[in-house]
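Much of what follows relies on a compact textual record of a protein's fold. Each token is a code from a learned vocabulary of local backbone shapes. The record below shows the convention in full.
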Amino acid sequence: MATPGAGVLTEVCVDSVAGVRIAAAAGADRVELCSGLEVGGLTPSAALIEHALAATGGSGLAVHVLIRPRSGDFRYSIDEIRCMERDVTVAVELGAHGVVIGALNVDGSVDLDVTSRLMAVARAAGRAAAVAHPRRSSRVGVTFHRAFDLTADPFAALEAVRRCGIERILTSGQAAGAAAGAVLLRKLVSAAGSGRTPIAILAGGGIGADTVAELIRTTGVREVHFSGKRLVRSTMQLVPEGVSMGAADSFDRMATDPDLVRATIAAARSAG
């Protein structure tokens, strides 16, 4: 069960129902639910969202759904935008506590039009869900994903995201991993906490049990995001040669590891 007041909020990025169960059992506060982790995460199916929510088992674990229609850059066509709008609505209708969004212009600035559209859809879906299900809150949490790390000016991007009403930004500090981006992360934490509308900085990227405590101490972040995954070898006895499903090794996969998740959460909480 999530531990209120534990100091540092922990979010586990998962792509399966099993991953949700592992995060809940380890005491995570939130999961980012996605598919296609091998390409940085894509929008999960409605069935996965539904079963993931059921798997939280009253633990208090929040489920935020990634809204990303394809791999590649974050400049979207009108068809892709319409798909994202519908995906936001479906996720909230199914009971997701939040969504994870992001879109950029060709110059690396935040696409305020698309981001604002998705925010409006999330709010409308939350209100509609609360009417249909009176016990459900109308509030929908919204995170701007790591498209932020590809912006030309991170401080201008932070203010743009803030203006859209988004409550947090997932970022590695525009580096390959959060540890390498620690200097910028610290500056972002300071900038995010100023002004009349604070916004949370959710540090993510290469975070594990051996790095999370130092990251928290040096940057001041109060939310951390990690996957805690390991390689799972296929148990298939027949592995035909010369046949590929598109991946480098389409039979093996990465999966959420309970020991890694528990250890990372424990290290984060000890630093908080």
